[in-house]
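Bumping with the actual sequence this time:
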Amino acid sequence: MSDDQHEDLPRQINEVLMQVFNQIALQRRVSYNLGGKTRLTMVEAEMCLLIQRRSGVIGSEIADALDVTRSATSQFISKLKEKGLVVVEPDADNARLKRVYLTESGKEAAAAAQEYSDQMLNALYDVPEEKLQTYLEFVTKLQRFQADAIERLKS
């Protein structure tokens, strides 16, 4: 690889990453038929999958896990309730805490989200472990940069 090609490679990667970020942002807001009876955004599907994995989770835990605000989480939970995908019940020990559980339809939505996740795993991670480690280091560094950038933009 020539020096020019090597210097151009980070720029090419950045261009592709920006396109991917835009695709992900769009995908998280647009509703899709993920194989179930109800159209969901990817955030709603992710929420169903998270609730399945942590049955009885509370809203603040969902917000932290998905890196969205508590207000947005509350709105998403309300939408999931309207769609008949979740039920919310008071905690047995602390009535101020509300625990979220999936309905049968919610379990179907979680299964569709899991299928999408499995497809991504199969499509992207069929490489040697040392390459995966390098990729993990890269995306972790990217995540830190993005978190710092968001904080800088807020001020």
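The tokens above came from a reply further down the thread. The domain at 3-154 is CATH 1.10.10.10 (Arc Repressor Mutant, subunit A).
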